[in-house]
Amino acid sequence: MTDNRIRNIVIVGGGTAGWMAAATLARILGRDYASITLIESDDIGIIGVGEATIPQMATFNRMLGIDENEFMRATQGSFKLGIQFVNWGRQGHTYFHPFGKYGVDMQGVSFHAYFLRLHQLGEAPDVDLWSLQAMAARSNKFMRAIDAGRSPLSDIAYAFHFDAGLYARFLRSYAEARGVVRCEGKIVDVKLRGEDGFVQSVVMENGSEVEGDLFVDCSGFRGLIIEQALQAGFTDWSQYLPCDRAIAVPCASVETWTPYTRSTAHKAGWQWRIPLQHRTGNGHVFCSEFMSDDEATAILLANLDGAPLAEPRTVPFRTGHRNQFWVKNCVAMGLAGGFIEPLESTAIWLIQSGLSRFLTMFPDKQFNQADIDRYNRIMATDYEEIRDFIILHYHATEREDSPFWEHCRNMAIPERLAEKMRVFRSHGRAFRENEELFNDTSWFAVMHGQLLQPQGFDPVAEVMSLEETRSRLAHIREAIANSADYMPSHRDFIRENCAA
Ligand SMILES: Cc1cc2nc3c(=O)[nH]c(=O)nc-3n(C[C@H](O)[C@H](O)[C@H](O)COP(=O)(O)OP(=O)(O)OC[C@H]3O[C@@H](n4cnc5c(N)ncnc54)[C@H](O)[C@@H]3O)c2cc1C
Q: Sign of torsion, CA 197 183 160 157?
């Protein structure tokens, strides 16, 4: 019998995507299945942004068997309970998109339905009161869940902020300890096999060639193999998500480490603020059609908590994805595969899901086209569903103070999102479709937070009397307030558990 097993895997790129791929393949396949080589160029370096995550990252750490405190120490990490959105729905307005759920669903009816009933009576102005994550974030508190029976403290959803450069280094030592071989140098050419156009090897600047059965392209936006050699093509979404540049700058850390990412909308985009132990990461994402680099830099620098620690850096990007993520014997991960702007910190998750979906379709040397087609279809759906959620933030706004916001309010949006907004506007109902990343709580948080006004509430909420609804919601609110009070400050929690 012919041996069709993949014996030789070459990963091109040593940014977050490359080292996540290396660590995952080394962990799952073990040392003896195939040799794994990772090529990266110190001259080119990594993109070095991408420092906020979503709770699914904990699953990735667990899959690798990584100790969370060790990971936090190594990456100067902090914890994240959600995102605070400032000036998005309208200027001066703030809302919080928390991880986890609001309240509890009761009698088979979603919590949102009961909340909206009281909200529309003017009795429940602030939905944050029913989210432990939002209330803890408000007072800069954090702890991991404990075994506390039915208390909200038994279920605390969180993610991480970390230093992207340190994260790549951390995963590198993990992967090298499991047999991955790192090769430093610049790739100058990609050789394709004459008979079928599969990738045969990559050619290094010193003339040497690295051959492989399978190539994982993690070379960043350039898509060295997937695009430059295999011409996968690109689906461009700039008509829906017009921001195309970011200016990034770290600044000195402040006394309070907020356990959340802040996203502040400006005239033609928005600014992120990500607190780490040793510094705060900041960046201004904007649309070059409506703002120059100079103006974007000035706005960013005028809105920092502390002194800048480096020169501001410009990062141009294009929103969309390769028409095919996997072509022949090359699969693209990370920025080489696609990018949706960083508003909801989804890019690292897309690497994670790309890797786990790829492992469920792991090829042999025959590279069955049906497997490849399925992978490409599923990944495209992942990207599209996230895209729609991000568009919502821009489109559902009352802002009309700049040409950029006028454009976003009036632009055409995908029909699936338009339907979600119509459904919400009628009775305030929000759903997770199929297996999409963002659940009903996230859709509700952002639609409500962006000031979309439902005409009524879900009629099924009347399965409970008004008196009982008031009393149960008051009870939940109290349990959440008490739980938030009980939690230590974010800074103390880090000091005691995972100070770098
Ligand atoms: C402005 C911005 C903000 C972001 N914020 C977030 C966030 O908050 N959360 C999140 O999840 N994601 C975020 N992302 C996305 C995140 O940064 C990326 O998904 C992540 O860093 C992965 O990057 P990468 O490894 O694909 O690419 P890169 O970091 O660019 O790595 C590319 C690698 O390829 C190598 N390489 C390239 N060409 C060659 C060559 N010719 N020879 C040899 N080696 C080569 C480079 O040396 C490098 O090692 C953000 C992205 C941007 C642009």
A: positive
Q: What is the mean predicted confidence (pLDDT) over 289-302? A: 98
Q: Is 186 annotated as a binding residue?
A: no
Per the structure, how many domains does the chain have? 3
Residues 342 and 482 in one domain: no
CA dist 219 and 223 (Å) reads: 6
250-270 tens-digit pLDDT: 999 988 999 999 999 999 999
* Residues framing ligand 1 (Cβ under 6 A): 13-18, 39-41, 44-47, 49-53, 164, 186-187, 218-220, 222, 224, 246, 283, 315, 317, 334-336, 342, 345, 347-348
For the chain, the average pLDDT equals 97
* Residues 395, 486 within the same domain: yes
Instruction: State the burial class of residue 366 (Cβ atoms within 10 Å of its Cβ: 0-12, 13-18, 19+).
Output: exposed
Question: Does 328 participate in catalysis according to the annotation?
Answer: no
Q: Distance of CA 448 to CAs 94, 95, 153, 421, Å?
A: 11, 9, 25, 11
Q: Are residues 343 and 278 located together in one domain of the fold?
A: no
The CATH number covering residue 183 comes to 3.50.50.60
Let me know whether 295 and 326 are in one domain: no
Determine the pLDDT at residue 50.
82
Q: Hey, what amino acid is at 78?
A: S
CA of 216 to the centre of ligand 1 (A): 14
Asked if residue 341 is part of any domain, the answer here is: yes
Asked whether residue 1 carries a pLDDT value surpassing 70, the answer given is no
Element (H, E) at 214: strand 214-217
Is 179 annotated to bind a ligand? Reply is no
Res 188: pLDDT: 98
Q: Is 14 annotated as a binding residue?
A: yes
Q: Which domain does 31 fall in, by range?
A: 8-51+163-234+319-367
Phi-psi region of 478 (alpha: psi -120 to 50; beta: other; left: phi over 0): alpha
Is 74 within a domain?
no
Are 274 and 325 members of one domain?
no
Report the residue among 12, 49, 51 best suited for mutation to probe ligand 1: largest number of ligand atoms under 8 A from its CB.
49
CA of 298 to the centre of ligand 1 (A): 25
**For residue 192, is pLDDT > 90?**
yes
Helix (H), strand (E) at residue 296? helix 293-302
Q: 348 alpha carbon to ligand 1 midpoint, in Å?
A: 10
Return the exposure string of 42-70: e unless at least 16 CB atoms fall within 10 Å of the residue's CB, then b.
eeeebbbbbbbbbbebbebeebbebebee
